[in-house]
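call fold(seq) -> tokens
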Amino acid sequence: MDVIWLDAQNTCDPREVGSKAAGLLRLLRLGFLVPRGFVVTASAFQKFLDGLGLTSKLDVLPKCTREDELEPKMRHIQGVIEAGVLPEGVKHSIGIAYKTLGGKVAVRSSGNLEDTEQSAFAGAYASFLNRTGEKEVLDAIRDCWNSAFSPKVVAYRLQHGLIGGDWLMGVIVQTMVDANKAGVMFTRNPFGERDTILVEAVSGGCDRIVSGAPADLSVRIDWTTRKAEYVKQAPSVLRRFGTGAVGLLGDNSEQSPKLLRRREIDALVNVAVRLEDALHQPQDVEWAIADGQLILLQTRPLTGYSMINRR
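ret:
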């Protein structure tokens, strides 16, 4: 199957859709609101690689142990993919799915080793926003596939001993969310205050925060009392290799506390509670609010944190 819809009833093999898409399917089954979309499967990617004669070249990569050995091989693979044409059957399936979805979409990678407890690959693969029309979507999908062999991914694989790991990925195509505010939430504060949730928000869409802009607002919420504290100063900015830079602002503007209403903070806290109850570990969550609805764009394990008893 070349395309799988993001639907709560789908119980497909996570290896077919990749870790990020599997996480979205899990969110849907838990009853959370997720943007409508579909996944171009790892099988479709495999067909593309087979058609370009690249599968055998990937099989020899585990023999390479140094970056200078891998670099020319990866340049060759990326060049072939960039010039490659998608198989007609795969192209047809994607075209039908996109016509059903329509409009502006986000096209995001979903690697099989990405966003797991063991390996993050966060930010290493490509993602594209505001793509319109079948050609733009097909080009973005191919560019997502090509990013699996980028220097950043190769360096990460070498560092973590994953050169022999799965190179395949799914690619997520979802309706763009016209958000008036968005951000990230760590269900356990990564600054070490494990009894607090950290929420960071920006006005507008989540593309601002994932592209590296600092947050307009940072809020700490106590797990026990649910008391929210607007953080106005912090000694440093936390950079997420994953989703751009989210940071505690050194000087939040006077308007920042108005960005999130109390009921929106409460809704985010409820999401944190439900996610930890269901997934049994701290989460790193991307969210957006559009037309008064809280929408989840992604969740992944907050690596390096073990579950703690909050009660």
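The radius of gyration is 20 Å.
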